[in-house]
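URGENT: need a sanity check before tomorrow's submission.

F., can you look over the Fatty acid desaturase record below? I want to be sure the sequence and structure line up before it goes out.
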Amino acid sequence: MTHNTVTLTREQADAFGREIDTIKERVMAQLGEEDADYIRRVIKAQRALEVGGRALLFAGVLPPAWLLGTTMLGLSKILDNMEIGHNIMHGQYDWMRDPAISGRSFEWDTACPADQWRHSHNYMHHTHTNIVGMDRDIGYGILRMSEDQKWHPYYLGNPVYAFLLMVLFQYGVALHELETERIRSGEIRLRDKRDVLKAIWKKTRRQTLKDYVAFPLLAGPFAPFVFTGNMTANLMRNVWSYMIIFCGHFPDGTQEFTVEETKDESRGQWYFRQVLGSANLTGGKIFHLLSGNLSHQIEHHLFPDMPARRYSDIAPEVQEICERYGVPYNRGPLPQQFGTVVRKIVKLTLPDSVKLPSLLRKSADEREPVAA
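Structure tokens as predicted:
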């Protein structure tokens, strides 16, 4: 566990929270046609990429067509997953009162049923962010991502599980609601999750039939090109979303918390925990778009129901407030942040008593600071 060396009194936390609330109230009052036009443009672009990509895959016997079609389809799946599905299901556009993008009913193009995601992610993760034993996103019930997770020989496979989770990420997310760690411990039985399994199977079967049966069959003699194109596009989406999400939660400097530490939290203390448990990624506009603006994970954890396109505008203001209160504002480029995530995965493979080479023990304090 990365232990917190920064503390705020109750009064300081409440003052911190009031300043953060002021940002939210101002931005939410400004929402309007510009935000509505933005999400409609993104949806239109995603659909154009998907249609164009699938059409090119039908001509996949020509290598340039296969490569371009696969890339376009992969980008469409990334947009659907990150900037559209994830953000819409947070209710970021519910104020528009458009049934097609309602957070309560939207369904996305991935194996995880949207209703299960709304519970495991929107409620469990965003309420109990980085609280060991309550936030199941810490390791997804598969990995050891905190020293406060008791070591077991099972975790000797930590790097292997991490790689498999990355390439099969949509299925790992789909199985999230199964609470596999509770099944392994004997706390619950698999049959207790019968309804969850039924919903996962129904959604996964539909996705599998669409990408690996229906579209390849429509391509006739070019079926192998469509099949491999769809598989590669899904792999692109899985690896990208895994990297963005893990870099927002687990790089050096992010902190985990115990249940005891978070009892009787005030709103300001909840905000404080969200900042300490998150990390941002630096990059340009296209990078932020393809990340679903989860490159601004700090702002997302503070304001999950705010349209994500607004995060880049308010990030400097949030950072300035954090600096005044002495609250660390963790940010850095993707390669650097992901490198520390990989190091943490490898380090936590072994019991805490085992000393690893200094490279793997390198702390966040030892890294060169990233310019603001």
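My own read: The chain has 15 helices and two strands. Residues 63 and 225 are 10 Å apart (CA to CA). If you see anything odd, call me.
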